[in-house]
Automatic annotation (TrEMBL):
GO cellular component: membrane
Organism: Sphingomonas spermidinifaciens
Protein name: Oxidoreductase
Keyword line: Oxidoreductase
GO molecular function: oxidoreductase activity
Superkingdom of origin: Bacteria
Length: 237
């Protein structure tokens, strides 16, 4: 299937995996609306992508922002064919975070993703596609990731169940679970990340963008349920 002319909402398209995917979608001729919390990062990503891309500054950690985002979807795209739910935050162990902070991570990573999926389903007309970017943290449960892995485990359960709930309506739902991937969420500096990528200890964001592109271009009869992608040498703890 071609992505040319497809109306896509890409959440968190300003850095890392989202930025790499924004560029790829634009090159394929998709019409893409994205958002992020940082105006400068948003402007840079849109300039790098070119094509039929647009963006707004928004925060899906706030429930009313999801409604505003989808008003922009209606206004700028005239509907939606594809939702790529990518926006997420990292987190510290729960006992090292203020109560408001770990709850905000849940609001962004899980509640925000669910709210966007719900709004997309309301707008799909005779089918549609949802790709949810999760993480292998949902299954490896590494120390230090008690909050983050909980949100990603919730996303995995949500994606797998949503697929069963919507398949008969022509909606395809896929879960992408990347391993360690270079991005601003990583503690390592950019130079160290490049070294880890070269050593096959870390994925490049483009690797995940390629995988999402693969999922989005399968024939309508094909539903890629779960795709787990790791660097060849993945740290598991």
């Amino acid at each position: 299937m071609t992505l040319h002319g497809k109306r896509v909402l890409l959440t968190g398209g300003t850095t890392g995996i989202g930025r790499a995917l924004l560029i790829k979608l634009a090159a394929e001729g998709a019409r893409v609306l994205t958002f992020g919390r940082d105006a400068d990062a948003l402007d840079e990503a849109l300039a790098a992508a070119g094509g039929e891309t647009s963006g707004i500054v928004a925060d899906i950690g706030r429930a009313n922002e999801v409604e505003r985002i989808f008003r922009e979807v209606d206004h700028r795209l005239g509907g939606i064919d594809v939702l790529v739910s990518n926006a997420a935050l990292g987190a510290e162990p729960i006992d090292e975070m203020a109560d408001a902070d770990w709850r905000y991570v849940l609001d962004v990573n899980l509640a925000g993703a669910m709210g966007c999926a719900r709004a997309a389903l309301e707008r799909f007309d005779g089918g549609g596609q949802i790709v949810i970017v999760g993480s292998i943290s949902s299954v490896i449960h590494a120390p230090g990731e008690s909050v983050y892995s909980a949100t990603k485990a919730g996303l995995a359960a949500f994606a797998e169940t949503l697929r069963k709930e919507t398949a008969e309506r022509g909606v395809r739902v896929s879960l992408i679970e990347p391993g360690t991937t270079g991005s601003d969420m990583q503690a390592a500096e950019a130079d160290e990340q490049r070294e880890q990528i070269a050593a096959h200890e870390m994925l490049d964001a483009d690797d995940i963008a390629e995988a999402i592109h693969f999922v989005l271009t399968r024939p309508e009869r094909v539903d890629v349920v779960t795709l787990r992608i790791e660097p060849r040498i993945q740290a598991l703890s």
